[in-house]
Amino acid sequence: MKYPITLVVNFTLINMLKLILAFAPIVFFASCKNTHTTSVMDEKFEGNGDHLERFTQVMVPPPLLPKFDQVDKEDPKVVLVTFVIQEKKIEVAPGDSIWAFTFNGTVPGPMIVVHQNDFIELTLKNPATNTQTHNIDFHASTGAMGGGDISLVNPGQQVTFRFRATRAGVFVYHCAPGGTMVPIHVVSGMNGAIMVLPREGLQDENGNLVKFDRAYYIAEQDFYLPKDKDGKVKNIATPRQSIQELAESIKSLMPTNIVFNGREGALTGKNALTATVGENVLFITSQANRDTRIHLIGGHADLYWPGGKFNNKPYTDFETWPVPAGSAAAVMYKFRQPGTYILLNHNLIEAFDFGALAQVKVAGTWDSTLMKQIQKPIPIK
Asked: Annotated catalytic, 185?
């Protein structure tokens, strides 16, 4: 039986449409995945870094990041980093202090920046003036408890070890000497983050290279300051006494202070972050011990990498981004209006009553296409 030409054409179009519809979900889901042709489950590596180019990365105090290139298409390198552990008394709020355990003297510790498949060669020094045994656990590393098993140092010792940064993203590191000393050291400030950039740079939601003009590292820190029977914060004399007191106060699971970058007001007023209208700003936020949720009042996360994992396609337009305990997140925002923004933990009690907030002061010209005040406040008519 012969069919009219038009009927044959219609059948052909219908069959083509069926094929398109059948494969559309596959194309869609494939577009959501990263661009690796080999599963992360099957990746293999060669060499231990002994013969690679080496260079020293100079650490800087947060919220700043060390010098680095956003794109590095050359061969992997060995990045040399030195941390000196400091046990020091710091003020976390006016009149309230704690014996902090720190990497390089700051809470949080410095941000390390490398590219995927670079090696980090860390020298960890524990001066004889300290009182405690310390180590470091990198969530970005593979094996040996994140390096914790091979980096334990007593006062007066130093250790050096090397690991390959196999996964792109932002990751927490912290001290983990074992048992209840792990949370005690972490809530005493001994944590930080490392950023492992894709060698080809960051990509936006469409897979295009996207660069940032500034980057800031903000770590939320929960403190559990021991108090006396009258509810006043105790003045702790020594690190050993601090450990004894914290062993009890942390069991309440109720922080006395929740702050950004180690102390109340660390990133507000004269210490506020800065930017200019039109700039892309990368915010890296971490929490080593408890969940939080970060919001930029007056702005958004144009690009949000959940868990800070850069090989995954970023989400867009988030208002608030979660940071689970023991992790870091990364967002990028292009500032479109001038003014003072507030970056905060959106448990508003923890932000305004405990201190988990920062300011971003942005210079530039107002854009009335985005917002315009029609009438200033006047008496109700």
From this structure: yes
* Cα–Cα–Cα angle for 129, 134, 139, rounded to 5 degrees: 145
pLDDT per residue as tens, the chain (381 positions): 444 544 334 444 444 454 444 444 433 333 444 556 789 898 899 999 999 999 999 999 999 999 999 999 999 999 999 999 999 999 999 999 999 999 999 999 999 999 999 999 999 999 999 999 999 999 999 999 999 999 999 999 999 999 999 999 999 999 999 999 999 999 999 999 999 999 999 999 999 999 999 999 999 999 999 999 999 999 999 999 999 999 999 999 999 999 999 999 999 999 999 999 999 999 999 999 999 999 999 999 999 999 999 999 999 999 999 999 999 999 999 999 999 999 999 999 999 999 999 999 999 999 999 999 999 999 999
Q: Which residues pair with 153 in a beta bridge?
A: 134
Per annotation, catalytic residue among 59, 181, 190, 195: 190
* CATH class of the domain at 54-197: mainly beta
CATH code given to domain 214-225+256-363: 2.60.40.420
Q: Is 137 a catalytic residue?
A: yes
Asked if 190 is an active-site residue, the reply is yes
In which residue ranges of the chain is CATH 2.60.40.420 found? 54-197, 214-225+256-363
Catalytically annotated residue among 175, 181, 195, 332: 175
Annotated active-site residue 53? The verdict is: no
Q: Specify whether 131 is catalytic.
A: no
- The three-state (H, E, C) secondary structure of 103-129, written as one string: ECCECCCCCEEEECCCEEEEEEEECCC
Confirm whether 36 is a catalytic residue: no
